[in-house]
């Protein structure tokens, strides 16, 4: 099976450049902005699998790494900075289907993800409610104390 996914681990060199920090504020920042440059990258290539540790914001399972690295390659970096792109839900489904996951597997994982997301949202709502009640109680106590002191 051909590898479908890769992760890059970058080893930094000791090359830090200080540049003036740009600010959108009227007052300019005085401390310099520090940047790190990398000279060597080690790329580990894995088989595609479902990411059990990632909970995407939608209901499509995340793409993860499966098994040990099937290839390790170290190269020098001569390119400019790049940006990491995220997979769309359609890309994730295609990658997982090519890796051998069935529609039934993906549907089951989607249901599991939705249950986890619902549980997390309920936990957040409970926390917010408890905090509001605690603040209201504290405010009432402060008002009662202020009435007693006046």
Report on the structure:
The protein is flat. The chain has helices spanning 89-98, 103-149; strands at 5-20, 32-50, 63-76. The chain contains 2 helices and 3 strands. It folds into 2 domains: 1-101, no CATH class; 103-150. The protein has a 3-stranded antiparallel sheet, covered by helices on one side. With 150 residues, the protein is an alpha+beta fold. The N and C termini lie far apart (80 Å).
Q: How many strands appear in the DSSP assignment?
A: 3
| Rg result | 25 Å
User: What is the H-and-E element order?
Assistant: EEEHH
Please identify the structural class as seen in this structure: alpha+beta
The overall number of domains is 2
* End-to-end Cα distance: 80 Å
The largest β sheet comes out as: 3 strands, antiparallel
Uncertain runs = 5-16
Order of strands, widest sheet: 1-2-3
Mean pLDDT: 80
Strand content: 25-35%
Task: Supply the key terms.
3 strands, 33% strand, three-stranded antiparallel β-sheet, 150 residues, flat, alpha+beta
Summed up, what is this model?
This protein is an alpha+beta fold. It has helices at residues 89-98, 103-149, and strands at 5-20, 32-50, 63-76.
């Amino acid at each position: 099976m051909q590898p479908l996914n890769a992760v890059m681990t970058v080893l930094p060199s000791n090359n830090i450049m200080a540049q003036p920090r740009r600010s959108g504020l009227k007052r300019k920042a005085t401390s310099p902005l520090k940047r790190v440059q990398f000279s060597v990258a080690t790329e580990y290539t894995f088989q595609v699998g479902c990411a059990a540790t990632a909970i995407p914001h939608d209901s499509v399972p995340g793409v993860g790494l499966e098994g040990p690295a099937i290839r390790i390659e170290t190269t020098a970096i001569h390119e400019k900075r790049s940006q990491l792109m995220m997979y769309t839900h359609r890309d994730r489904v295609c990658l997982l289907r090519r890796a051998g996951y069935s529609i039934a597997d993906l549907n089951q994982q989607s249901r599991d993800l939705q249950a986890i997301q619902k549980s997390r949202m309920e936990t957040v709502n409970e926390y917010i409610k408890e905090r509001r009640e605690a603040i209201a109680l504290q405010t009432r106590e402060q008002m009662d104390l202020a009435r007693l002191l006046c």
